[in-house]
Amino acid sequence: MTIKAYISGPMTGIAEHNKPAFDTMAKTLRAIGVEVVNPAEIAAESWHSAMRKDIGLLCECSHIVLLRGWEDSPGAQLELHI
């Protein structure tokens, strides 16, 4: 069975939208053979358009990986709930 994981965590209000943390986790997961959806690699015009794209991709995943600080992120909380 192939594992496909969605990385979820805080972006808004963090330098570089927290891209280094997302990219580090993606690299780590890919190194062990996990297929990864990294929202930091997906372009979006606004928070709302990002969430629309991300939720669709999240629904294709078998796992979610939460980055540090997810508890303070409304988007990450929503993604975990889904």
Outline the low-pLDDT stretches.
none
Oligomer: single chain
Biggest beta sheet attributes: 3 strands, parallel
DSSP E strands, number = 3
Run of helices and strands: EHEHEH
Q: Enumerate the strands of the largest sheet in spatial order, edge to edge or round the barrel.
A: 2-1-3
Q: Which value, in Å, is the CA radius of gyration?
A: 12 Å
Q: Counting H and I runs of at least 4 residues, what is the number of helices?
A: 3
Content of β-strand: 5-15%
Apparent shape: globular
Distance between the termini: 22 Å
Class by alpha and beta content = alpha/beta
Helical content stands at: 40-55%
Mean model confidence by pLDDT: 95
What does this 3D model show about the protein?
The chain is α/β, with parallel strands linked by helices and 82 residues long. The chain is built from 3 helices and 3 strands; from the N terminus they run E-H-E-H-E-H. A 3-stranded parallel beta sheet has the order 2-1-3, with helices on both faces. Helix 1 links the parallel strand 1 (4-8) and strand 2 (35-37). The model has no long low-confidence stretch (mean pLDDT 95).
